[in-house]
Amino acid sequence: MRSLVVVVLASAIAFVGYAYVGYPCLLKLMSLLRPGRSLPNAPTSWPLVSITIPVYNEAATIATTLRRTLEIDYPAERRQIVVVSDASTDDTDTIVQGFADRGVELLRVPVRRGKTAAENAALPLLRGEIIVNTDASIHVPPDALRPLIAAFTDPTVGVASGRDVSVTGLGDQSNQGESGYVGYEMWLRDLETRVDGIVGASGCFYAIRADLHQVRVPDGLSRDFAAALVARERGYRAVSVPQAICFVPRTAALHNEFRRKVRTMTRGMQTLIYKGRLLNPARFGLFAWMLFSHKVCRWLAPWAGLAALAALGVLSFTAPWAHWLLGGFTAIIIAAAAGWTWPVGRVTPRLFAIPAYLVSGNVAALLASIGAMRGQRHATWEPTRRDAVAVRQSSQPAL
Predict the structure, then answer these.
(1) Which residue from 83, 178, 219, 270 has the highest number of Cβ atoms inside 10 Å of its Cβ?
(2) pLDDT at 41
(3) Pairing state of beta strands 205-209 and 130-134?
(4) CATH number, domain at 144?
């Protein structure tokens, strides 16, 4: 019996280690063995792009977002800006209409059905060769769009994803653990790009060829994740573009980030179930392995963590080392609980913030997997409200 419990513990630790360390190490090794790809040159003629901004009750931020969007360094005659209002009930639509004389178009969806449904409704209006999808709560610097569009000079690229940079808002933020995780995720996407291509795009800022974007995605699924999968199905790659910076303000409270993660992971899991054939290595080879390692293993890691905790609990009665390891895990959980209950608006010490972010993220994955198995839907969209952001123009991610 004891030997079986030790095997369970070792297997669980190895699985979590592979998901977060082993997989990136293998990617790094493979990237060293593959010839590097040259940076794409600027196109001789910039294509027509359609920039879509789905919104729901964004009256507090939409004017600033549109002003920034209009300031983006891209030929105005080669740009279409469409705001898709998911039946907003505040002054969002009125504010957007005030930008009509500057070329901003408003599509109001009369019945609230969620972000993906709103994006689907906008498909007939989009005239661009490349569709750029962004968010009302983030800040895209003026020089970020051209590198994103330049990626499509490579005929193998179907989706180009921007580089998220987690930043604080104008007020104090308690959710400090997010920055390191975002930096890790962007580093991992860079490795995937060098090896073959990323398995999911950033919902904050990504571009896709128009013919791929016209593929309708069911309302309850995640379009940004599906974009990379649709591209691969049709023989294209999705890539990360480090020069296409997008500043993403951290949420003011970890509780809000937790709820967002439950929603997005549930939708992500259901999207992968919908596109499950991409996990077939006989058809999709290296990409199937990357998709399994980055997404499935990451989602299963919390369950492996629970198995490890259970095994340590059993072994702690007879093995002192297991008792001490269990005590270490307990200390992490206590620190996470302190971070979770820290007053909103006060900066949480990193000693509490990082464990709180890690533990809450894994609990969110557990709840999301249960919801996905039950067929729970999060079609109705509740955008994460983020503080206004004040940042310096920078090409480097905040870690």
Answers:
(1) 83
(2) 77
(3) antiparallel
(4) 3.90.550.10
Using DSSP's 3-state secondary structure scheme, residue 334 falls into helix
| pLDDT at site 341 | 87
Tracing tokens 């990357």 back to the chain, one arrives at: 290
Tokens found for residue 335: 């620190």
CA 349 to CA 336: how far, in whole Å? Answer: 11
**Cα separation, 349 vs 176, whole angstroms:** 8
- For 12, the domain range is 1-399
Q: Which residues of the chain have pLDDT under 50?
A: 170-174, 389-399
Supply the pTM of this predicted model: 0.88
Q: What is residue 105's predicted lDDT score, i.e. its pLDDT?
A: 96
pLDDT of residue 381: 59
CA distance 9 to 3: 10
**What's the chain's length in residues?**
399
All residues at 6 or more sequence positions from 161 whose CB lies less than 8 Å from its CB, including other chains = 189, 198, 201, 202, 205, 206, 228, 238, 239, 240, 241, 244
Question: Which contiguous run of DSSP H or E holds residue 259?
Answer: helix 254-274
Q: Are 365 and 268 in contact (CB under 8 A)?
A: no
CB 174 within 8 A of CB 348: yes
Q: Residue 39: beta bridge partners?
A: none
**pLDDT reported for residue 380:** 59
Tell me how far apart the alpha carbons of residues 204 and 135 are, in angstroms, rounded to a whole number: 5
Report how many domains make up the chain. Answer: 1
Instruction: Select from 54, 49, 42, 73 the least CA-distant residue to 209.
Output: 49
Q: What is the pLDDT of residue 164?
A: 92
| Number of CB atoms found within 10 A of residue 282's CB | 6
Residues pairing with 236 in the sheet:
none
Q: 3-class SS at 258?
A: helix
Alpha helix positions (H), the chain: 2-17, 23-33, 62-70, 92-97, 115-122, 145-150, 178-195, 210-213, 223-233, 254-274, 281-291, 297-315, 320-340, 350-373
